Amino acid sequence: MYSSRYIQIKNPLGFHTRAAAMISQKAGQMERTYGARLYISLEGSGNRLPMSSFLAMLSTPVRDGDRIEVMVDGDEPEKVLDEMTKFIESCFEAEDAMQIDSLLQEASVTYERIFENVPSGIVVLDMNGVITLFNKAAERISGLSADMVIGMSYKTVLPNWPLEEVYAEGKTYMGMRLELNGAAVLVNISPIFSTSRMIGIVSILQDMREIDKLSNELDSVKEMENRYHNMLESVHDGICLVDSDGIIAYVNPAYERITGERYDELIGKSVYDVSPGGARATALRLRKPILGVIGTKPNGVRYVADLNPIFYGDRFMGVVSVIKEVTEIQDLTNRLNEEKARAEYLEQELKRSQKLDEAFNIIVGKNGKLKEALSIASKAAAADATVLIRGESGTGKELVARAIHFASKRKDKPFIRVNCAAIPSNLLESELFGYERGAFTGAVNQKPGKFELANGGTIFLDEIGDLPPDMQVKLLRVIEEKEFERVGGITTIKVNVRIIAATNRHLEDMIKNNTFREDLYYRLNVVPIFLPSLRERKDDIPVLVEHFLNEMNKKMGKNIKYVTNEAMKALVRYEWPGNIRELQNIMERCIIMTDKDFIDMDDLPMYIVGYKPENSTLINFDGGDLATMEEYEEEIIRLALKKYGSFNKAGKALGLTHKTVAAKARKYGIVDSNEQDLK
């Protein structure tokens, strides 16, 4: 049977330590006498705790004025309730025990605060296997609340823990890996003894996640320490670490090499003894950086040193000294100047290439002559032979040279462009081959030339026909022997460079006039590429116009949609002496000047609008009169056969059958009457 009764606590100390001890002892006696189970619950908490457990009673937060519910489960519950409630009330009536209760309560609160604030989880069981203490760390680790688990059996909350063995044998278990509500924990389990009598079990637990995290952090620190140590061991500069007392704590191998002193001769020595007036001792005293100190070591090596204090927060840890050999610094300065020159040149070339990309991100065109030239260029890219690109100004020779380079195995190496016509002849040699310091007035530093910058990559010699005769000889040597000397230098420099040359001049005539070396011509002309002029590829003009229209719309933020048929015919009719470059400029001008969303005849320059091809033969006024229809027909058939080369293709262009074209060609004597029809 089950029954309960409420009691109001009237004591300034609330449910204090002495009362908890007396009540738990009395409850245990009554349970044995009556065979009943007694429980206690703070009103409104919803938790039912075993009254015979001292730790459970002590952990119940009952204050002055609180109501507690006493519950009995067993035979004669009312009799048990009467006796137990009277006993509880008597525990708070002895005024002479107030001082002792205060001391006990202070000690209890102290221990409770300790248990609640330790970082380790603490779980305490009484001798009945009931959980009587579950601190905040245990709550954090397990995700369980103390209110929920206190009063519960360990078999429910702590399954698979070896607690029965502890109860039975009083054994202690250390460092066990167990689980608490799914959380992995490292547990120490020990019995609690009072005057050689076991009164419960305490388990101290650590969150394995925190332990693993600390272990990983420790591994990371060790890994970082090894990494930094390896870095210090491998750097080229000499490094010396001195602690705050002036004791040398570390030197790297480079420091040993530069100074000629061994590690075991330096470690543990005081800089105040080794060099009391030296830079390290001064930096230790001042605790400030000292930079650019130049000195000489006992082995005669001249060095420059930078010294910096080491602080951890506000704590002074010592000084680090970094030294370099002066000769090494000079070498590094020379190399830095070379790399600076290379970087400046490549930066300029990058800007140029970006500008080109805005106009020509690909080689645009479908003309047969252009495709044939690009086919040769593609094959040349797969080899490493010297290439000579021929073509009028503005036909895209540099664009093809770049395509050859970036399609070759040298694509990851530099592409260096030199315009031979743009550099004065007296400066051309120093530009191509570089110069040594002091080679001439103003040569204050050594400078690498374009061939040296292009080493491993490609050098593009534009306008090669403008190369002076004396430079032609030196260029021939570079091509044949792959070597040269800087201006003012005596050291022979070997290079591995692929040469692509370009010209718009007739080199064969120049050879006849003795202005261009024949042997150089044959060295350059290994793979010749002939780029057609724009007037030879007029079928590409509409494609190029559309390309420039799209590119310049993006560049200028405009939306010009199309070019009218009349304007396109005028563009195709024009001969374009400036080739693609001139077409690009005309398109840019039209897009800037037009106020419409299309380009028409009135947007084109007058010299293009009014252009008429020379020797126009379609319609002639001979002496002011028209020719006969048959004369016009004869000329049309003649021009069609000349352009298309067969009756079939000419017929398709004129809208006639090939038999009609063949018949008219024979009629006018354009072909022999016995000549077979060409398909």
From TrEMBL:
Q: Which residues form the PAS domain?
A: 107-160, 224-274
Annotated InterPro entries:
AAA+_ATPase, AAA_lid_NorR, Homeodomain-like_sf, HPr-like, HPr-like_sf, HTH_TyrR, P-loop_NTPase, PAS
Annotated GO molecular function terms are:
ATP binding; DNA binding
- Per the UniProt entry, what species is this protein from, by scientific name? Calorimonas adulescens
Q: Which Pfam families match?
A: AAA_lid_14, HTH_50, PAS, PTS-HPr, Sigma54_activat
Q: What name does the UniProt record give this protein?
A: HTH-type transcriptional regulatory protein TyrR
All residue ranges annotated as the Sigma-54 factor interaction domain in the record? 363-592
Q: Which GO terms describe its biological process?
A: regulation of DNA-templated transcription
Instruction: Keyword check for Nucleotide-binding, yes or no.
Output: yes
Gene3D superfamilies registered for this protein in UniProt: 1.10.8.60, Homeodomain-like, HPr-like, P-loop containing nucleotide triphosphate hydrolases, PAS domain
**Source domain of life:** Bacteria
